[in-house]
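Researcher: Let's do a round of design. I'm pasting the structure tokens now; please hold your answer until I've finished.
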């Protein structure tokens, strides 16, 4: 079935007539229908921005719940879940029996981790479509998710007392088989030889033995616990420093970065700025590669938490499913605990602040405020930690609600005031797909870098990374196209409602 905005790719058909309420001969309705049809064609071509523009024009010409529902789906595809939610709400307000709009709203709510509200909408859809197997299946799956989260909360006290190290001690490691010829830790330690072997091993679609995988997780928790929420990085005068954005499980593109920019080392340091996993179906390979280099070069290789290093996102967008498929649920639980200790932001030479998302809903936030964040938790839905992981820049002054439904959008005046208050030069952030792999906003003071080219095998964007030197913090940009990868589709392990 084609994935168009008019025909839901979830195979749930609205049981009510989709015909416009205004007579077809009405010239405004005719024009709006033509605009909507053109929008559908752009949607089919995955040109979501143009589709949104045409749906918007159709709405302005002759408002109709169909156009709002279609625009909601297009916003969903661009991960603007807040806008998707708003459009679905509008469609429902115009026609409260419009089943497709409830389905769109459920998808947006699920993407935001608001499972109970999504369940109510899916229940409505299931009742309206009793013979639609897909509707019944999605309702049942969402109900299971709600129950699972309730169970997780019920045992949260036990989890708070648990550490990865303790979990590792409780494991009965299977003896490493004689025929395993993959990478092996040397006396329990990551070495450069191990990392080079691991990259080749993963490139050939092999799996690291769980003995070593568990040990890396144990060592990472111990290391990350020693890190502050804001990590200060000192880059020597002539040394190059590289900042990468989202990787999102695109392992073969991660390899390409190392090919063109060199392997990490004490003289070739890197910062990866969150969203290492999810969506791409080689997230396990990405995360163990990044964790391995962090253990090898703890003072020259840096990792920041993104909004996808969290329980809800991992459940929905594939990382949990991938870990369970390749290892076990126990290991997925361990990752959740380790991610809680990832630093939230980095300060380069006291002048450049790097975070995954962006700035804040209030003025006069200081670096000491960021240092004081207690990060050992799942990301909250508001506050400094939430906004560090979720916020986005926008071109107009001031602050507005986030297009994502979480965090805020902040203007150039907000950036300027924050930099002045903290005596900083500029900020680097990630979190958004950019056609060229990077974008410079707010008079050069807010830079976005995104390192996953042709995101999800469909966005056709370049990837990019930033390099700078200690005595010259002027950013330089390197862009690149996507690399071939094995024929495993993105989101192969994702929660089925999100695919």
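Researcher: That's everything. Go ahead.
Model: Designed sequence:
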């Amino acid at each position: 079935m084609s994935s168009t905005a008019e025909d839901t790719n979830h195979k749930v058909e609205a049981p009510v007539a989709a015909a416009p309420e205004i007579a077809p001969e009405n010239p405004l309705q005719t024009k709006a229908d033509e605009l909507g049809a053109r929008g559908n064609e752009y949607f089919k071509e995955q040109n979501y921005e143009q589709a949104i523009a045409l749906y918007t024009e159709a709405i302005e010409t002759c408002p109709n719940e169909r156009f709002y529902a279609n625009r909601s789906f297009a916003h969903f595809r661009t991960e603007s879940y807040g806008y998707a939610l708003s459009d679905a709400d509008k469609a429902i307000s115009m026609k409260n029996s419009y089943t497709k709009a409830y389905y769109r709203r459920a998808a947006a709510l699920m993407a935001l981790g608001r499972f109970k509200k999504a369940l109510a909408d899916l229940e409505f859809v299931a009742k309206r479509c009793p013979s639609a197997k897909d509707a019944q299946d999605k309702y049942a799956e969402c109900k299971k998710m709600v129950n699972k989260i309730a169970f997780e909360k019920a045992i949260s006290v036990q989890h708070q007392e648990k550490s990865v190290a303790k979990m590792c001690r409780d494991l009965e490691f299977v003896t490493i088989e004689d025929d395993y010829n993959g990478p092996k830790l040397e006396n329990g330690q990551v070495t450069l030889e191990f990392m080079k072997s691991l990259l080749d091993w993963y490139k050939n679609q092999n799996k690291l033995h769980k003995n070593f995988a568990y040990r890396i997780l144990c060592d990472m928790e111990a290391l990350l616990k020693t890190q502050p929420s804001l990590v200060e990085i000192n880059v020597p005068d002539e040394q190059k420093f590289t900042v990468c954005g989202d990787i999102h499980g695109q392992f073969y593109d991660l390899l390409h970065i190392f090919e063109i920019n060199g392997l990490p080392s004490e003289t070739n340091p890197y910062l990866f700025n969150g969203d290492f996993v999810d969506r791409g179906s080689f997230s396990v390979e990405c995360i163990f590669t990044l964790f391995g280099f962090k253990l090898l070069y703890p003072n020259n290789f840096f990792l920041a938490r993104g909004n996808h290093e969290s329980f809800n996102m991992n459940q929905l967008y594939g990382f949990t499913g991938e870990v369970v498929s390749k290892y076990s649920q126990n290991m997925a639980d361990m990752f959740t605990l380790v991610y809680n200790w990832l630093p939230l932001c980095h300060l380069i030479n006291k002048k450049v602040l790097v975070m995954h998302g962006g700035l804040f809903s209030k003025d006069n936030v200081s670096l000491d405020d960021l240092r004081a964040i207690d990060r050992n938790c799942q990301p909250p839905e508001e506050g400094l930690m939430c906004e560090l992981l979720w916020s986005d820049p926008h071109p107009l002054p001031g602050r507005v609600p986030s297009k994502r439904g979480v965090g805020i959008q902040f203007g150039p005046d907000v950036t300027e005031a924050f930099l002045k208050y903290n005596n900083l030069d500029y900020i680097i952030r990630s979190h958004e797909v950019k056609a060229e792999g990077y974008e410079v906003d707010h008079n050069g003071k807010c830079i976005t870098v995104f390192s996953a080219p042709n995101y999800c095998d469909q966005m056709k964007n370049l990837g990019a990374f930033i390099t700078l030197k200690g005595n010259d913090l002027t950013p330089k940009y390197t862009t690149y196209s996507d690399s071939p990868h094995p024929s495993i589709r993105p989101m192969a392990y994702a929660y089925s409602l999100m695919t």
